[in-house]
Amino acid sequence: MVFLGPPGAGKGTQAERLVAATGDAHLSTGDLLRAAVADGTALGVEAKRYMDAGELVPDEVVIGMIRERLESHDGGFLLDGFPRSVPQAQALDELLDSLDSALCVVLLLDVGRDELIERLLARGRADDTPETVAKRLDVYLEQTEPLIGYYEARGLLARINGEQSVDEVFGEIEAAVSKAC
Ligand code: AP5
Question: What distance in Å separates the CA atoms of residue 134 and residue 140, rounded to the nearest whole number?
Fold first, then answer.
């Protein structure tokens, strides 16, 4: 399964609930990159420059991180924040083919820009400043939104109204997952 959606849509919040219910592994590229930054690894030092600017970390870095985890994992998984560009989605297709695996659903959390800005500024993570949030939203529109058509064309997309309570959003997600997976 994949969670797709703009910054602040609730991907991390809902991913935690979904993996608690399904027992799948939660793979969040944002969490993995923040852990690398906190550990001060070479990858973390490189990634931090992009994250602080609200830009995407280079595809080869995140694709390598995901490849390593999927190749060593047995069982279901939920990708949160990956893929985020068409080259990342193509790399994921190739990786899943090589593992004889496939996606069952791509869950798109739909939330309007004003609500996203309000949520992120209220949260206050290091990259939740007004300038970085504006940049992250623009990057989402340019580089990640094309994935909606990419997955819709494959019949994998489920649209979820993310502007409801956390419980209501989760109810829609559970219904979409039980229908598709
Ligand atoms: P990442 O960590 O993936 O951040 P993001 O996509 O910007 O998403 P957020 O974590 O900000 O939001 P979310 O959708 O998970 O919402 P959340 O549940 O937290 O990426 C960070 C950076 O890492 C990127 O900018 C990039 O530099 C790099 N990166 C990551 N992946 C990459 C990749 N694949 N390729 C390249 N670079 C990559 O909720 C947000 C807030 O809203 C919370 O306070 C929450 O409590 C609240 N909330 C949640 N649901 C609701 C609700 N229903 N109602 C009201 N409030 C709610």
Answer: 10
